[in-house]
Structures are given as C-alpha cells and as structure tokens.
C-alpha cells in the first residue's frame, strides 16, 4: 500500500497518509498503480458530474468538471503540457528546448497551447449526452495514465537526471502489463464506445510520445504530463465522433 499511496499522493492532491519517504525507487514502484489511480480520478469526476448535473446548466457543469480535474491533480500535467509546448515550439536546438522546459516560467507558446486545450475540452464535454459523459469521465484519466506508463517504460529519458528518471529507472518489467490489465478491465466495463475511444486515444498518445522523443532525444517528466493531457483530449474527441 505504501507504493500505491506514493503514486496517489504524487498524481493527485488526495492525502490519506503522511509520507516523508519519497525515494526514487518508491516513485518507480508506484508506476504500476497509475491506471488504478486514473480510475479513482475518473470515478470522482463522474460522481461530481452526477451530483452537480441536477443543479447546474450544461455549460457551467463542463467548466466545473475541467476545473475539478485540475484541482484534483494539482495542475501537475497542465504544467508539463505548457512547459513542453514552450520548449518544442520554440524553434531552438534540442539542448535549448530542454533548458526552456526546465524553466519554471511559462511562455507565450505554453499559454496559447493550454488555452486551446481548455477550449477543446470544454467544447467536447458540453456536446456529450449524460450517458456518454459518465463513461468519458472515467475513460479519460485511465487512458491518459496508461499512455504515461507506456512513455515511462518504453522510451528513453532525455536528461541525465531528473524526477521523471526515477519513474523510468525503477518501474520494473511487470509494470506495463499490470497497468494494461487494470486499464482494459475498467474501460471494457464501460462499453464498446469507451473501449474504442480509449484504444484510439492510446494510439494517438503513443504517436505523440514518439514524436516528442524524436524531437527531444527522449522524454522528460514534462512530456509525460503533455502526452497525458493530449490523450485525455483524444478520448473526448473520439467519444463525440
């Protein structure tokens, strides 16, 4: 359970136990729980949607759900998405891109990209029926964390050191299989639309990770967040299509 709580308290703002040991190997071992944590995030969002849909109009509910996910995750993946956009779209050398991504300040590319991401998420959520939205809210974070695990376990790390490297170094060989079984079980229970949307989104996420790895010479913690956000967007898009 210690490794599960490490992953839960890193990927979300849910605090169930007090932890002072954040060792690299503990981070790595927590990766096998990422899709389960994604399912927990999805269930919270789906429950929130069920309760608030009784009182709020659809356009307000869509905004609240987007805000709720950001609050629940502490904006962790949003930060990675913006940093990645700043670096990749800078038009600089590979080394300079990595330097830009490491900078704590957000540039114009990151702000514009994140604004477009929020606009697309809002537009897709507001266009869904209640039944579709319930399944999409659970599928979205599960597929996103599945691609994150694939990125961690299947691509090289772009920097000689960094927090993201601990995940890649200590994840273990069985991690990908464990997370895939959990993801498939959760998504299959949600029906054929969820299964197709999740499958297509995971493929899109892998292609995005491969593109970023080619540009940067590997992946980083920021790109893990970026591919997670883009995979979630792909899930919503495929649900609507």
Automatic annotation (TrEMBL):
<feature type="transmembrane region" description="Helical">
    <location>
        <begin position="132"/>
        <end position="158"/>
    </location>
</feature>
<feature type="transmembrane region" description="Helical">
    <location>
        <begin position="33"/>
        <end position="52"/>
    </location>
</feature>
<comment type="similarity">
    <text>Belongs to the CobS family.</text>
</comment>
<dbReference type="GO" id="GO:0051073">
    <property type="term" value="F:adenosylcobinamide-GDP ribazoletransferase activity"/>
</dbReference>
<dbReference type="InterPro" id="IPR003805">
    <property type="entry name" value="CobS"/>
</dbReference>
<keyword id="KW-0472">Membrane</keyword>
<keyword id="KW-0808">Transferase</keyword>
<protein>
    <recommendedName>
        <fullName>Adenosylcobinamide-GDP ribazoletransferase</fullName>
        <ecNumber>2.7.8.26</ecNumber>
    </recommendedName>
</protein>
<dbReference type="Pfam" id="PF02654">
    <property type="entry name" value="CobS"/>
</dbReference>
<keyword id="KW-0460">Magnesium</keyword>
<keyword id="KW-1003">Cell membrane</keyword>
<feature type="transmembrane region" description="Helical">
    <location>
        <begin position="58"/>
        <end position="76"/>
    </location>
</feature>
<feature type="transmembrane region" description="Helical">
    <location>
        <begin position="196"/>
        <end position="213"/>
    </location>
</feature>
<keyword id="KW-1133">Transmembrane helix</keyword>
<keyword id="KW-0812">Transmembrane</keyword>
<feature type="transmembrane region" description="Helical">
    <location>
        <begin position="170"/>
        <end position="190"/>
    </location>
</feature>
<comment type="function">
    <text>Joins adenosylcobinamide-GDP and alpha-ribazole to generate adenosylcobalamin (Ado-cobalamin). Also synthesizes adenosylcobalamin 5'-phosphate from adenosylcobinamide-GDP and alpha-ribazole 5'-phosphate.</text>
</comment>
<feature type="transmembrane region" description="Helical">
    <location>
        <begin position="106"/>
        <end position="126"/>
    </location>
</feature>
<keyword id="KW-0169">Cobalamin biosynthesis</keyword>
<comment type="pathway">
    <text>Cofactor biosynthesis; adenosylcobalamin biosynthesis; adenosylcobalamin from cob(II)yrinate a,c-diamide: step 7/7.</text>
</comment>
């Amino acid at each position: 359970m210690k490794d599960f709580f490490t992953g839960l308290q890193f990927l979300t703002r849910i605090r169930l136990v007090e932890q002072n040991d954040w060792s690299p190997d503990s981070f790595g071992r927590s990766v096998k729980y990422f899709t389960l944590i994604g399912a927990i995030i999805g269930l919270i969002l789906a429950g929130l949607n069920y309760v608030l849909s009784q009182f709020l109009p659809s356009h307000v509910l869509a905004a609240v759900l987007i805000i709720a996910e950001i609050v629940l995750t502490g904006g962790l993946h949003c930060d990675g998405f913006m940093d990645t956009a700043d670096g990749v779209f800078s038009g600089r050398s590979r080394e300079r891109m990595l330097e830009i991504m490491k900078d704590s300040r957000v540039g114009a590319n990151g702000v514009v990209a994140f604004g477009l991401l929020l606009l697309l998420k809002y537009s897709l959520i507001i266009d869904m029926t209640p039944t579709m939205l319930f399944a999409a809210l659970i599928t979205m974070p599960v597929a996103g964390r599945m691609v994150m695990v694939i990125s961690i376990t299947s691509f090289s790390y772009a920097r000689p050191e960094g927090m993201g490297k601990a995940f890649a170094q200590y994840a273990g060989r069985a991690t990908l299989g464990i997370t895939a079984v959990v993801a498939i079980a959760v998504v299959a229970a949600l029906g054929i639309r969820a299964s197709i949307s999740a499958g297509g989104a995971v493929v899109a996420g892998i292609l995005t990770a491969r593109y970023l790895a080619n540009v940067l010479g590997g992946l980083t913690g920021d790109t893990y967040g970026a591919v997670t956000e883009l995979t979630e967007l792909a899930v919503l898009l495929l649900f609507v299509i």
